[in-house]
Design goal:
Order of helices and strands: HEEHEHEEEH
Shape: rod-shaped
Strand order of the largest sheet: 1-6-5-3-4-2
Largest sheet: 6 strands, mixed
Number of helices: 4
Structural class: alpha/beta
Number of strands: 6
Strand content: 5-15%
Length: 235
C-alpha cells in the first residue's frame, strides 16, 4: 500500500468556517446599513438645527426692523406739529375779502398771478403743466385749497422745474410757467402770495406748510381732479 500525501497548495475551508464567514458578511452588511441610517439621522438633525437657527436669526432681524419702525413712528408722532398760524413768511402779501363768484369769460385780476376772486365754474385739474394755464380755472383750484406755483420760464430752466416738482406735494398743487411774472417763482394760495428768489428759496416750503389745503380757502378739500385739463399737462 502506498501513502498518498495531500495535494500541494490545497487548503480546504471547513464548513463551520464557511458559515462563520457568511455570518460575518451578513453582520457587516447590517452594520453598514445601520451606519448609513445613523449618518442620515445625523444629517437630518443637522438640517433641523440649521433651519431652526435660520428661523431664529430671521425672527431677530425682523424683530429689530419692526422695533426700529416702531421707534421711528413714536419719534415722528412725538415731534410737535407746527401750527400753520405760527409760521411767519417774509414778504408774504395777503388779500382779504375776495369775491368768489362763478362767471363766464375772462376776468381782470389785480394780482399777477391772481390769488382769488371771481373765476370759471370749472376748475383746472391739479398737476404739472409745461404751458401757461387759464387764470380763471386755476383760481377755482385756489378756492378748493390748492397752491398754485408759477415760474418765469426765462428765469427757471428744466433743472429748476424738476427741483420745484420734487419740492411740492403730489396733490392739490398746480405748477405752471407764467411769462412776465416779475419774480423767478411765485407761490399763491387763496388770498395769499409770496414772490420767491428762486427754486431753492426756503419760503416755498413755509408757504406750502402754511397754506396747502388750508381751511381758510372758501371750499377746502373740494375736488382738484375731474375738471379741465389745461394745455401742456405733463403730470
Amino acid at each position: 500500500m502506498s501513502n498518498q500525501s495531500p495535494r500541494s497548495g490545497s487548503n480546504p475551508i471547513p464548513p463551520k468556517a464557511k458559515d462563520a464567514q457568511r455570518q460575518l458578511t451578513v453582520k457587516q452588511q447590517r452594520e453598514q446599513r445601520r451606519a448609513e441610517k445613523v449618518a442620515e439621522f445625523q444629517r437630518a438633525q443637522a438640517r433641523q438645527r440649521r433651519n431652526r437657527m435660520i428661523t431664529i436669526v430671521s425672527s431677530i432681524v425682523g424683530g429689530v426692523g419692526v422695533l426700529a419702525l416702531v421707534i421711528t413712528l413714536v419719534i415722528v408722532n412725538a415731534a410737535p406739529k407746527v401750527d400753520p398760524a405760527s409760521i411767519a413768511i417774509d414778504g408774504l402779501q395777503s388779500y382779504p375779502n375776495l369775491t368768489a363768484n362763478h362767471v363766464q369769460g375772462s376776468v381782470t385780476y389785480d394780482q399777477t398771478p391772481p390769488v382769488g376772486g371771481d373765476h370759471a365754474s370749472i376748475w383746472l385739474n391739479c398737476g404739472v403743466y409745461s404751458e401757461p394755464v387759464p387764470n380763471e380755472n386755476a383760481v377755482h383750484d385756489l378756492e378748493h385749497g390748492a397752491v398754485w406755483v408759477t415760474y418765469d420760464p426765462d428765469a427757471v430752466d428744466a433743472a429748476g422745474v424738476d427741483a420745484l416738482r420734487a419740492a411740492l406735494p403730489s396733490t392739490y398743487i398746480v405748477l405752471s410757467p407764467y411769462p412776465g411774472l416779475g419774480a423767478p417763482v411765485v407761490a399763491s394760495a387763496w388770498g395769499e402770495q409770496v414772490k420767491l428768489d428762486g427754486v431753492d428759496d426756503p419760503r416755498l416750503g413755509e408757504f406750502i406748510t402754511k397754506f396747502w389745503r388750508s381751511n381758510d380757502a372758501p371750499e377746502p378739500g373740494a375736488a382738484c381732479t375731474g375738471g379741465l385739463d389745461g394745455p401742456g399737462r405733463v403730470a
